[in-house]
Amino acid sequence: MSDDLIAQAITGYWGGRCADTDPDCPCCQAWLAYDRQAAERDRLRDALEEIADMFITNIRDDPQDVKIIARTALGKS
Ligand SMILES: [Zn+2]
After folding, report:
1. What single-letter DSSP state applies at residue 76?
2. How far is the CA of 30 from the centre of ligand 1 (A)?
3. What is the 3-state secondary structure (H, E, C) of 22-66?
4. Separation CA 28–CA 16 (nearest Å)
5. Which range marks the domain in which residue 15 is found?
6. What separation in Å is there between the alpha carbon of 39 and the centre of ligand 1?
7. What is the mean pLDDT of each run of 10 residues along the chain (77 residues)?
8. How far is the CA of 62 from the centre of ligand 1 (A)?
9. How many domains is the chain partitioned into structurally?
10. How far away, in angstroms, is 38 Cα from ligand 1 center?
């Protein structure tokens, strides 16, 4: 499901974002979850782009190197 469809579903069920964020408000909680998911998606996209750049600029032969590159880009090293 694309982010737009998720945003449409949240808007349809809970409504648009509240003017002020209230952690006890179900609508705000839905949008905060959406924002966390979007941030994680962006972080993973950036990591994948970093991995792709590393492969393009520095082709590796050792599978262990691939694992190290991926873990480094994902911030898990
Ligand atoms: Zn709210």
Report:
1. -
2. 9
3. CCCCHHHHHHHHHHHHHHHHHHHHHHHHHHHHHHHHCCCCCHHHH
4. 9
5. 3-73
6. 20
7. 86 96 96 96 89 73 72 76
8. 51
9. 1
10. 18
